[in-house]
Amino acid sequence: KRDCAVNKEFVMKIAVIPSNNGLGHIKRCSIIANELSKKNKVHFYSPQSKTKKFKFNKKIKLINFNTKINFNSKYFKNNKAWINKFLKNNYYDIYFSDNLPELAYLKKNFFLYANFFWHHLFKKKNPNKSKEIDNLIVNKKVTVFSDKLFVSKEILKKFNPVLIDIVGSKLKKKKIKKKGILFSFGTSNYIEKKNILKFLIKERKNLKKNFSKVYVDKMFYDKMKDLSLADYKNNMFHNIDCAIVKPGLGIVTDCIKRNIKIITYVKNQNEEFKNNSLVLNKVFKSHRSKSLAHAIKHAIKNKNTNERNKKIKFNGEKKIAKLILGNYN
After folding, report:
1. Among 148, 150, 158, 299, which has the highest number of CB atoms less than 10 A from its own CB?
2. Full-model pTM
3. What's the rounded Cα separation, in Å, for the pair 241 and 179?
4. Residue 260's closest CA among 176, 148, 150?
5. CA 48 – CA 64 distance, rounded (Å)
6. How far is it, in rounded angstroms, from Cα 329 to Cα 39?
7. pLDDT digit string, tens, across residues 4-13
8. What's the Cα-to-Cα distance from 218 to each of 33, 156, 197, 210, 241, rounded to whole Å?
9. CA–CA dist 198, 137 (Å, integer)
10. Those residues with Cβ within 8 angstroms of residue 22's Cβ, 6 or more apart along the chain or in another chain
């Protein structure tokens, strides 16, 4: 039974389940969950080791849960297994997920955020299963929310998404005299990481000479303790002026919010990152590099130029919450 508030309005029970592949989905969902929890009960399902990195409304119940996304031949089978486990003893008025469309198999009142879909990566290997999930989204009439700048053409064409502004607020960046640089290639396994590590080891003296701080992910920092560990907290972002990135939406929006120069590197990457790189180049004039050597050369050459982003709108989470709660009522 639903809980009833003092003002006779129903307090809804909402489950938020982000993909735990990387941190971008979880961070975006934390912002959306905070908005949804203002007048409702929200349970947030994600690994504790990752949720502790973000700020949550105290009313939100954090549940240690791993969706175990595996990008291999067992992708579809494994997803069905964890969904059955999750839904076995859980009832919610509303289910919201960032990029896990398979949740539509067993529940109504399901809402989804996505600019691309994982299952499209397996379209050639398993076209029937990929098509099945596409049809599931359409037939269950799942409301799909997408970023108006970064949504893929395929989602625009097939799923008629609700287009929203960037999730989160624009942030003021402190003015700094000394300028640092960030190298960010995501927390997931990346085929290029060995080559990147070798190159950074080779170039670190040059980087330290030209930048006050050189931030790298833990997978690289463990081999180069003389550099700085990227923790993605406000202080790190205040100390950088440029970021060379694999352009996942999480790090991209973190930089856009602070007017940090973005240089994209998408060697051996999937269509999501290539699409984001093209959008950044077109809308923000961000530099696209085919090699790390070229990216670093461009960063050094332009380290004294200031980024001036166009007037971009933020706080897309408010529209998501308004439409979800309004639709249910």
Report:
1. 299
2. 0.90
3. 6
4. 176
5. 5
6. 13
7. 343 446 789 9
8. 28, 36, 11, 22, 20
9. 43
10. 186, 187, 188, 248, 250
